Amino acid sequence: MKATDNTLNNNTNTKWAGAGLFAAITASLCCITPVLAVLSGVSGVAATFSWMEPVRPFLIALTVGVLGFAWFNKLKLRKPEEIECQCEEDEKPSFLQSKMFLGMVTIFAAVMLAFPSYSGIFFPENSNSKTIIVMESDVVEASLTIKGMTCTGCEQSVNYALTSSEGVIEASSSYETGIASVKFDKSKISIEELATTVEKETGYKVIEKKINRM
Length: 214
What we know:
Number of domains: 2
Distance between the termini: 81 Å
Largest sheet: 4 strands, antiparallel
Oligomer: single chain
């Protein structure tokens, strides 16, 4: 019976590990999607999971709690009678029931939860980063207020969409303020066209356009 109990315990622990992994991936969808969208060339779906940002802290807490319990269950001291019953009937745990697997799941979950902090490395350098010759009188600075940005991955997605447009000199955005600042050549592109590009390429909604300087 003890061998059966140990097997059931190991199987339960594997399920907890799987639940923790699922929670970690779900918590990171709003940040991973913009990167995957750009890399796959389907940028319009970047904002698909932005609605999940408000529940991200709860999913992170759930991930930590579930994996913490799985480790507690795996490392807890056994009772003397359980040790005494460690007999030939006990089977060696499979890889999915091992500490190594749980450790790999924990590391992967941590990498997923930290994704926003390093998501920028996945965005390719834009060809428009080269020097652009433009008349000073044609340079315009503008601000776009964008709804839907929730992390640095969203910022990178918006920046990439803007700097991919002909005539854009530089662009930067902040998910905290929801504002993208862009400097461009008005003889080649307009603020309306830039707003359309952001909405088309990222899926985020531009709710305000403002010219800062002509």
